Every structure is written in C-alpha cells, then in structure tokens.
Amino acid sequence: MENWDDLRFLLAVSKSGTMSGAARMLNTNVATVSRRIERLSEQLGTNPFQKTRKGWETNPMVQGLIEAAQTFEGNLDKEIHQVSSPTGRSPVRIGAPPIVNSQILFPALIGTEGKMKTIAPEFSDRLVPGGLGDHDIVIQDRLPDTGRLLSRKAGKMNFRVFAPKGYNGDEWISLPEASGYTGPTELGRKVFNTEPVARASTFMQIFELAQQSGLAAVLPETLAQKHENWDPVGTEDDVLSYDLYVLYHETRKGDPVIDATLEWINYAFQKAKALP
Length: 276
Hints:
The protein is α/β, with parallel strands linked by helices. It has helices at 6-16, 19-26, 30-44, 63-83, 98-105, 183-192, 203-213, 221-224, 256-271; strands at 49-52, 55-58, 90-96, 119-125, 137-140, 149-164, 172-174, 198-199, 216-220, 230-233, 240-249. Among the domains are: 6-71, Winged helix-like DNA-binding domain superfamily/Winged helix DNA-binding domain (Arc Repressor Mutant, subunit A, Orthogonal Bundle), CATH 1.10.10; 157-241, D-Maltodextrin-Binding Protein, domain 2, CATH 3.40.190.10. Helix content is 38%, strand content 24%. Helix 5 (98-105) links the parallel strand 3 (90-96) and strand 4. Pfam families: HTH_1, LysR_substrate.
C-alpha cells in the first residue's frame, strides 16, 4: 500500500457509517474523505463500502483489512499512552445510554479530580447498542456478539413504575415500541393493565413529560428516587433490571488511559449505588 494514512479514512468511514461523520472524526472535509476512499478503491480493486439507506456498509471483502487497521490503531494508541508523560489529560470517548450518562457518569464528575487527572472524557449518547463505533469505551445493556471486544460488568439499573404522590389514575408513559426495549412497556401494562397514553424516546424525556403532565411513568429508580414527590406503583416484584457492561477493543488492554477510565467508571457506579 502506497499510503498507510488511507487506512485512517477507511476506519473512520467504517466507524461512523457516513462520509460526513468520518470527516468530523478526522477534522477534514467530505471531499477529502471521498477522494481518499476512491484512491483506496483503486488500489484494492474493489469498493470498500456500499451505499445503502442506512449509510455506508462495509464490503465483506475488506472486513479483514478494517479489523487489521483497527488493531493497528488500538496498539498504537496503547503504546503512545504507555510511553507518554502522564502530566496532561488524554481524551477518551465514552458512549452510553442518555440515562447512564446523566444519572451515573455525570454526577461522578464532581469532586473526582484525583481519579481523573490523566483523562479528559468526551461523552456522547447512544440509543442503540452495538459495536464501538467511534468510541474508545461504550456502556450498554448487552454483551457484544461480534468484533474483538473485551467486556466487564459495570453494574445494573432498576426500573419501576412511578407516579406523583396521591395519583389514582391509570394513564402512563413509556418508550416507543420501535426502541427495541419492550421490557418497560410490558412492566407498565402489567401494573396498569392499559396501554401507555404517550411515549418518548429517552427516559429523561419520559421523566420531564411525566412531571409536566402529572402522569405515571416507567422510570429508573436512580432518577425517580431523587424526587420526593414520586412514589413507586405496583408490588415489590414489579421491578425491571438491566445489567450494564463496559466494552472496549482488546488491543487497548493494558492501555493506561483505558485503565484509568475503567477505574473511574467503576467509581461512578459505586457512587450511584448501581453495582451488581
């Protein structure tokens, strides 16, 4: 290969799924990304990606090359972090469900300067579980089924139906059916024996909608219990629990930046009392 740097563009498009996303990751423009991918296509004799409605999907013929590039990138990052002076903070990209970011990770930023002296986390919300994408670490409620990813259990999050004090109705709010998470809606149906009257795409939106409407909602215990005007509805058995896992690429094992981030994430779950 004449230009190894082209692999950065190959990997960026694979991670982001779009030319524009790859351009943002690499701090360049779409025209440059397109030109690099076209040059790489000429070298390989095949197009690395196929355009679909969902974005750019990887050509199976180059999957091995992408995995090799990801391994090279991970090993390079690890070696750089191991030899670099620990005087500054290294950026680390963390992807997690919005409710995990807001209720577990963000509160742990306060008063943890000592635990975070070597890392500068960059948070993003992930609504759909999957691979790493353009993140260094992701937190999700299921183990990976593909890819060379390492995982460890971070903790869990419990959900119940909550309603304002004195609520006697049967109208409630849940996630959309298309979210892929049917558990919260099934729990609400069990408690009220009715269908939800409204839906929102995240639990933070559900909570805000419930507050403004005065309706019941399926919510994380960590969120609802922070507000004295909310009471659980149903029996003690009407609880839904999701295990949460931390995922990162196997080449980053032993990377001091990843290790420091994992330690901080563990602290965040301890502080939120969301451990297994």
